[in-house]
Amino acid sequence: MTNVITLTADTWETFLAGLYERDDRLDLRRDGETYAKDEVVDAWVMSGHAEALRSADLDGDVWGTLEDIEEEAPDEEAAWAKITAFYLERGCVLLRVDGYEEPEEWILGEGLARRLGLLTS
User: Which of 18, 29, 31, 72 has the fewest Cβ atoms nearer than 10 Å?
Assistant: First the structure.
């Protein structure tokens, strides 16, 4: 089964604001708990937990990731398609963010996506 989740840009920002990182673990904020400023999650922090990403604001190193999976491609679109296929075949989740001028796509491990409330059931 292919897991593709699409969020709007506003929902993405709200999603990130609802996360915290502590001891290299990303998790959901809980009502009533206090979080230190250094536990704030933005796209840069989130990138450390993604399997791969394509973003205008962050260097997801599409070509390096393609090399890591021992594939080749003629252009970045084809490279990203191969990367996405590789990870989705292994149970990962593709998170697309609509509303930006350039593509914003993140590939997350299924366990992380579940823990962060992106997958239900």
Answer: 31
Q: Sheet containing 52-54: give its strands across.
A: 3-8, 93-98, 105-108, 52-54
Structure tokens at 98: 């609509």
Distance in angstroms (rounded) separating the CA atoms of residues 21 and 40: 7
**SS3 state of residue 100:** coil
The pairing of strands 3-8 and 93-98 is: parallel
Q: Which residues are CB-neighbours of 28 under 8 A, at least 6 positions away? A: 18, 19, 20, 115, 116, 117
Decide: pTM greater than 0.70: yes
Q: 8: which strand partners?
A: 98
Helix, strand, coil percent values for the chain (each to nearest 5): 35, 25, 40
Largest Cα span, the chain: 51
For the chain, the C-alpha Rg in angstroms (whole number) is: 15
